[in-house]
Write a structure and sequence with these properties.
- The protein has 298 residues and is of the alpha/beta class.
- The protein folds into two domains: 7-209, Glucose-6-phosphate isomerase like protein, domain 1 (Rossmann fold, 3-Layer(aba) Sandwich); 226-296, Helicase, Ruva Protein, domain 3, CATH 1.10.8.
- Helices cover 49% and strands 9% of the residues.
- Strands 2-1-3-4-5 form a five-stranded parallel beta sheet, sandwiched between helices.
- 41% of the residues are buried.
Length: 298
Amino acid sequence: MTEDVSIKYADFDRWSAEDAVSAMYDGQLAALAALRPALPDIAAAVTGAATTLGGKGRLVYVGAGTSGRLAVQDGAELKPTFNWPQARAIFCIAGGLQALTVSVEGAEDSTDDGVAAIQDNNVGKGDVVIAVAASGRTPYTLGALREANQRGALTIGIVNNAGTPIFGEASHGILAETGSEIVAGSTRMKAGTAQKIILNMISTAIMARMGRVYGGYMVDMVASNNKLVNRAVRMVGEIAGCGPDAARAALDEAGGHIKTAVLVCGGLTVAQGGQLLGECGGNLRAALEAVPKPDSES
């Protein structure tokens, strides 16, 4: 359907700028609405992925063209936002990473290249492959998905067309049926918006379930500039219930590690906080619940 030409927009090039922008706005709202039926499938994919990634598994993003670029954008933001190790985010993009800025014509048509990308990265059991394709049948992406399935990876297929092989063959198929585009085939529009939202939901929910979020705080964030250092100070202060000076001192003592700093504010040493976090799998909520309460000591 994303390739269909809509009679509704037959004279789109003749519309006023106001009418064109208004129509595109309505299209973006329609893309969001198309996600509602997919929410249970998205949740199931998150649950499966978080469980699979509990060891040392990797998130592997697969796509071509617009879909590939959106996938890379999502994966590239995992390190600064959640301190997800860069070695655990793999990108299999038709045409290589150069295709992020320069179109590589014909790259998406090679099933063998998709297979090779999975093989070259030694994808297998314990890894989670997120394959994104508006059409649901892009040869490169489909080849990668099938090879990942054969190797025992958990696969997630994000598509915008029903009844397509990527949706049907993925461990978790997610369909956002956004329909025809104002500019036929321009899946950077409605389809791309829906894909980006789905990717945002999946990655954020996975990180939350893996303990890289506490409440609404990105407690595994890397404080790599002044803005983020100040954000880290606020986080520590609000979670630990202390003032900014105490929060900043704890952060300095903990080497900028937000979770450890929170525990330091609670009376633990850096070593004790680090050990407790290790015992709790890095989950700050579990670590805070495990800290002995003063009134429980005998």
